[in-house]
Amino acid sequence: MDLTLFQPTDSHTTCPFKGEAAYWTYRGAAGDEVEPRPDVVWAYPQPIEKVAEIKDHLSFYDAVAKIEISE
User: Which residue numbers delimit the DUF427 domain (predicted)?
Assistant: First the structure.
């Protein structure tokens, strides 16, 4: 995933089972005419110990993002 297309936001939420989530907004590449998708991606940079394996894994709101995987 090209993280240069996303910008970190000030949004944070707290889950009692996972910890504090950080969010990113999709901005697109420089010069692209795209509508920003606020807080469409989130991750747990410092999850609680019981779920440490989710650290830095990214999640997407599929209702506002079309996800395509290519090799």
Answer: 2-62
